[in-house]
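Help: read this over?
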Amino acid sequence: MCSLRGHDEHQAVTAMNIFKELLRRAFIPITQEVLRHLTAQLRSPNEDLHSLALDGLLAVADKPEQVWKLLPLLPEVANNLQESDLPNTRRLFSQLQRSLEDISSPALAAGAAGHLLPLFDAECYVARNFSIHNFRVMLGRGATRALRDLALRSLAPLLLHLHDESSIVVEACWQTLSTAAILLGHRKLHRLVLIRDKWSTCRIFGKRFRKVAACSFQEQILGHLRSPQVSVREAAIRILALRGMRSDEQESIRSCAVLATYALEALPDEDPPGRSLQERLRRLCRACCSSA
């Protein structure tokens, strides 16, 4: 791979083309170094290198036995995809989906689901839909403790992505929430999911699972205050407000304080000189109320 790291772009593209063909014909072993190189080339400003790297990943994904090597790298792959990659992106995730559907062991399913969870927040909607759909498939492979734990960890991001800009992703979230509710034995949550009641679903989640997953739930929601999707950010604010209103006084105050701190950090830095904290908080309150 030395020639691929050369400074001559023409030489690098030629070498990458040969490298891709060797991968496709299985003339070289697929190692972690090979996969790291392909994902690194996705970041290349050279469109030819970027495209050839994606072709190389397609060649890897076409081999079911290599899927486990590729799964941990999917978040990085998804974050470096471009709009022009959409046809090949669909092919890549379609090939990976066929391999995942062959998994029947609950232990292997839990391992795959753990790699899919970080992709729920990928910028590419195809990646979000792929990860959420296949996460549901993995949850259906058994009722083990590992899969239940993953189902619990998935509830907060799934609730937030019910407000996703992509209707395909929203539908995948409803279906996955239904499977997760069944796996967790939560009948009321399942009924609310079936009637597609977004905010009642958020309320029952906060009430039932507060003691079990309060810290991770709040951390997950707070992380989405910086989501690139406005609709997801607004949903995060409203869910935190709902949680605060249903808590005791001390927890309610803490939730509001944490929310205000994060939101103030997100306010633009170019405010006019002399603007007081009171004025900034008033802007924050107006933003929260408009999304309620």
Notes: The radius of gyration is 22 Å. The chain has 15 helices and no strands. The chain has a mean pLDDT of 81.
